[in-house]
Design a protein that fits this description.
By secondary structure, this protein is an all-alpha fold. It has helices spanning 2-25, 31-55, 61-68, 71-84, 89-109. The chain starts with a helix and ends with a helix.
């Protein structure tokens, strides 16, 4: 039952990830929109990583470490965005990589 609930949550997160990714990369004149969707994308990536790392049994040490390493691209993306003052394409791609890594690791590790 719990794995079913986690799967439903993961499907909702994947749908949210697709929506935020589309709106993050759609060219608009308003930088605030890009910042909001960049932050949402980073937060979704962190949430996916947290779910992946905590859903695994304790004896899966290597897989847990690999799941937590999924946050690294998002952290680098946030550093790049803060250094530039706005989310650049590189920062957005790094946030996208974090979410993709989380989704694929959830689907293939569990």
């Amino acid at each position: 039952m719990a794995l079913g609930a986690l799967f439903i949550l993961e499907v909702v997160i994947i749908f949210s990830f697709i929506v935020t990714t589309v709106f993050m990369f759609v060219p608009k004149k308003n930088d605030t929109v890009h910042k909001i969707f960049f932050v949402l994308s980073v937060m979704l990536g962190i949430m996916i990583t947290f779910i992946n790392a905590t859903a695994l049994p304790e004896n899966f040490k290597t897989e847990i470490i690999m799941a937590w390493l999924g946050i690294v691209p998002a952290a680098i993306g946030v550093i790049v965005a803060v250094a530039k003052g706005k989310p650049t394409v590189v920062a957005k791609i790094l946030a996208l990589v974090t979410s993709l890594y989380g989704v694929f690791s959830y689907l293939f590790l569990i």
